[in-house]
Amino acid sequence: MSARRATGPAAAVGTGLISVDGVSGAAAAAAGRAALAAVEKTRRGGVSTWDASGLFQDLAVGGEDAGAPSARTLLLLYAADLVFRLRWEIRPALAEGRVVVAAPYVDTAIALGRAAGLRGGWLTNLFRFAPPPAESRYVDSLPVRTAAAHSGLIEFAWHQKTYMVVSLDRDQLFERTRAHLRILARRAGRRASAA
Predict the structure, then answer these.
(1) Spatial contact of 97 and 72, defined as CB atoms under 8 Å apart
(2) In this model, does residue 148 exceed pLDDT 90?
(3) pLDDT at 8 over 50
């Protein structure tokens, strides 16, 4: 994956897309709100969060009858949800000259995929449609044990008992995803921060 452009504080006050990625959905959302709060009020476009399309909510409602999705299926759904977010939330605000925060964005999904053993090339190709953010932020905190299934993508993957039921326990999934996210952060030239 190519490194994401990180322009520093100027991107937060200018027009652009800020990505906030992390293993903890709640921490990433909080960091996203904080990033947007640092932007001049008239330039705020909002925070785009995962499952804006309702795909994951529909999957959760299906329960056990829907079966456990594979990691590949889960990431294909995330890509579809991101296309929805770009079409209806992110690009319209950017076109108006506003700053938009995507929490999470692409790196969280790629880190989950790598933790699941998916090839980096496949993941890069899957998310090739996503525009690079003007600024990338990474939250290096783990979710609390009682995190709800819908608090973040990684928590959802665990609660849905995706591929990892057989091969990884909860802590292994979160730590492996966190390690891959740290690699992506280093490649983007950003240091992960605690939330």
Answers:
(1) no
(2) no
(3) no
Calculated CA dihedral for residues 100, 101, 105, 108, nearest 10 degrees = 170
Domain count, the chain: 1
The Cα 24–Cα 75 span in angstroms is 17
The structure tokens listed for 24 are 């903890």
DSSP for 2-27, please give it.
Answer: PPPP--THHHHHSSEEEEEEES-HHH
Supply the CATH number for residue 87's domain.
3.40.50.300
Pseudo-torsion of CA 115, 116, 122, 127, nearest 10°?
-70
* Domain residue limits at 168: 17-187
Q: At 40, is the secondary structure helix, strand, or coil?
A: coil
* Greatest distance between any 2 Cα atoms in the chain: 49
| 59 has a pLDDT exceeding 60 | yes
Asked whether 74 and 149 are in contact (CB, 8 A), the reply is no
Helices (H) and strands (E) in the chain, counts: 10, 4
Cα torsion angle, 112, 12, 188, 92, sign: positive
Predicted confidence band at 161 (pLDDT cuts at 50, 70, 90)?
low
1 within domain boundaries? no
Whether the predicted pLDDT of 3 surpasses 70: no
Radius of gyration of the chain (CA): 16
